Protein 1
Amino acid sequence: MRAVDIIIKKRDKGQLTAQEIEFFVRGFTNGDIPDYQASSFAMAVLLNGMTPFETTDLTLAMARSGQVLDLSKVVDIAVDKHSSGGVGDKTSISVMPMVAACGLPVGKMSGRGLGFSGGTLDKLESIPGYRVDLTTDEFKKQLKEKGIVLTGQSLDLAPADGKMYALRDVTGTVPSMPLIASSIMCKKIAGGANAIVLDVKVGLGAFMQTLEEGRELAELMVDIGRLAGRKTSALLSDMNQPLGAAVGNALEMVEAIETLHGGGPADFREHCLHLAAHVLFLGQRAKDLTEARALAEKSIADGSALKTLRMLVEAQGGDPAYVDDVSKFERAKYIEVVKAPRSGFISQVHARIVGEAAVALGAGRAKKGDPIDHAVGFIIHKKVGDRVEKDEPLFEIHANDQTKLAEARNEVLSAHQFSDKSVPPLPLFYE
């Protein structure tokens, strides 16, 4: 068997066997198959797709490329929540502590920022000392003792995906349905989660632009989960505009923490409570979604969710004082409030434009290994459907470079569209 023959077969729209996929993934993982062939394979998959069977085989091969965790001796049930990426999506940082505070163990492995989509690890690293490189033994120990872990992929868990994930970001192969589905699900399967809730983003700032694409991805991932023996459910949520107000690593951490303090933007708080309810229900901590929602709300009201986040940060080497006092987070050198150029109703806040502008400021990576500037980003003051008056604050720019600030101002202004007539607000969830 040769890598080039597998690439050619997929290039010519053939269906790969489980053995061919296993061979390619194993060869790429151990270095026998070089980056350039893996890039070519990814592009062939992007252009020609994969069947559900091929995608499941790819998922399982990537999961088996390293250790597959068995957490049955550690906790009675381990849950995970995954978002398919978006702009301003800091939900894990609020939802996971809410769920763990309700007595449901959460073992989560997150990723870095990918394209214009922010990464949970990059956000968490804006807390000095926070470790995202726990070993498998540390993962298990912390899950057993604290009931919550939020770390990066360890090198021995789905290493094939870690390599492919970094490669996709710089070869234009991010928006591929089989590659997205297999990348998400292999980490969940390898990470030992028994129950998985998937938050599939749909819209201008998502990899899935339409509801139909989002539904296809959601159904594909739920099928993979079930075939692998995991309880899996998916929600389709809106990503036409940024979620919450903050876009940028430290700014999003502040917003996620403020939400656990009982504050935060209304749309973000509602999104988190709805997600937490689904996780608690799937994880059998509530008899229905109504009871699950009440548990999530209580975790914020009684301070237990905030206490759990503090415990998580401390357990992973971070400074817990940042959870108590968000003014400690690094601030950008230049902060500019941009005012509305006219009165009217907001008809669009183009999430992808805002996300790409944040990357250009330094909040994300243009290429593999780029450093992240944790302090930069935006605070978006208005949502679709809101009324705005001329010269009212529209958004804030947090920048460390005045040239980049000027470029960002124009970009984010262009993301805002206005209407003279009232505009209905966007739904948070579709189905």
Note: The longest helix spans residues 211-227.
Protein 2
Amino acid sequence: MMANMNRHYFKFLIFILLPGSLYAQPPGSAIDQFKSPIDSIVKPVVDGGFSPGIVVGVIYQGQTRVWGYGSISTQNTNSPNGDTEFEIASITKLFTNLLFSDMVHQHRVGLNDLAQDYLPTGVTMPQKDGKQITLLMLANHTSGLPCFPDDMGFHPSDDPESDSYSPDMLYHYLSRYQLTRTPGQGFLYSCMAPALLGNLLALKKGTTWIQYLRERILDPLGMNDTGVAWTPEELGRVAEGFNGETQPPPLWKNKQSTFLPEGALHSTVNDLLKLARAALDENNQVLSGIAFDEIAQKLGWGTEVAHQGWSGDGFNSFFWMDRKNKMVVIVWGRCDAGFPCQVGDRVQAILMGKPPVSITLPTLTSLSEDQLKTYPGSYRVIQPPEGVQAKDGLDIKILPMKDCLVAQGPAWWSKHVILFPETKGRFFIKKDASTLAFNLDPQGKVVGFTVTSDQSFDAERVGYKGPGIKDDIPPPP
């Protein structure tokens, strides 16, 4: 996906930052032609309530625009803009790879150094088929390590202040984990691997990951609105996350998590545009030595730089650069599902000369109380989604809630999920843009349901009796 950029420099332009996060440009300039087609893509997503706030930032032919749509929060109906704070989640990994490149260029570490050599004494890195995991494998998702440890046992939405998974716990996990695939033999997206990489770089540097990042990248680029801890001023500009539920998810406020290097940063579109402009300029003093050569290319900083971010706390984000043609698209949205990333894909295509393509959105409807009363009951997941442990709980109750349904369960992935009717027997989940379809037996009775998403699963009805619910299936013993 990524290759080395062509070595040429675009003409010098001076940008003047205006209030509302819009950079001044001559009226009728080339970039303004994209506003109408972008509007046609974004507004149905916002107006339909699938992502109630979205910001789009674009660089094209040396010009910059930032457009905001919808609202900042349920209490603040102003449109978000380039200075609105949000969680960038996995886009954080791009920053960690820049620090890795910096350490390689300093000859402090090597791309193909064994990760084992940088672990504390007594910690054993897993290996398979005689192959060991290198630092580069941690960076490019070929280590074979899974996304998260199986003993993590928490989700940031449960306790944003929690730091319950320490580095020592990660080291213990690595020492006992058995790889299921050979290191270097294929792509397997992992949050654990870049998190470990960031921690190992910090150990070698003799500092913390966030301090290293701030001194090497953030402060020199003037990215003052990017970080992990929230200042009171930043909290005054932060958007409210959205996951389709009645209560907004809490912000991630973890200050010293083991997993900071893979997804803990918050930022603004204007700050990310500062990073993008520096990465378009081969002569930029901050990035010139670490983001433009073959080493950088191997770490995701080639001709094309792209990453998406899903915070799990109500934000979804998209970062894309075509460094050869000097084009940038940055999108974030108040949304747990991937609609903002779909917006990003389509804006990218528009900049490349393709016609706008609308996002396929579900058509939600209303069902009567009589139509809804068939579905409430108790269901048990037959096979949990990947990364969900049986000990977290496999029983889900489906209950009526006004003109929709709500799924409740003990595990973080099913605590309180609203099911919006599409048709009789089929419901949409705004939380992750998945669908839940109820299954019927030959007599027409509901016997279970199937959730279709990136992590599909089935559940069977095991019975439940509650207020206003008539169920002829006996409750479980």
Note: Residues 369-461 form a domain with the Lipocalin fold (CATH 2.40.128.20).
